[in-house]
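Sat 14:20. Reprocessing the chain from the morning session after the first attempt stalled halfway. Input below, unchanged.
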Amino acid sequence: MSVRGRIDNFTIHFQPSGFNRLFGIPMTELTDAAYDASAVIGPEIPRLEHELGDTPGFAERIQLVEERLIRMLGRHGTVDPVAIAANSLFASNGIHRVSSLATDAGLSPRQFERRFLAQVGVPPKLYARIVRFNAALDHKLRLPSRAWSRIANDHDFYDQMHLVHDCRAFTGESPSRFLAHLERVPEFHTFFATENHPRQK
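Finished this time. Tokens:
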């Protein structure tokens, strides 16, 4: 398929357990896989796609999706303590101790990990590593002149090699090579963007 002309698109970034809370699907069923949205969520997706196609303005399309999601969120009750813990882990750039989060949630470590897996899709310690790596990468994208060693220190890696190890584990490449790929496709930067500021040392 060949597409020409201007294409407008946007992505939806859910909170760590947001997709599970909205749709009730165990995230372990979706982790490391790609699905057509309608196969996962159901007939609501084709209807929404049709409405988006009939909505002329880009801002209006975003508003349409936001209103639909907010309406769905209103059907749910209080936020689960594991969801609160996952949000805290994200807000801390992956620095919070998982054991203390389990205690704060009033759960044993095993209970916490089981519920975290269902709501987020990966174990809490792995999620913390992913969040920390994303924050470090976002930091480097915003401040390209900052040395990788400083980035590693700012985000509580043991040293630069620890950051390199995690980068290879998640991307299969060194930080510099992976960053070079991202620089060629700046639209992908949003996938690593975070509103959290790193802890300066």
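Confidence is low (pLDDT under 50) at residues 197-201.
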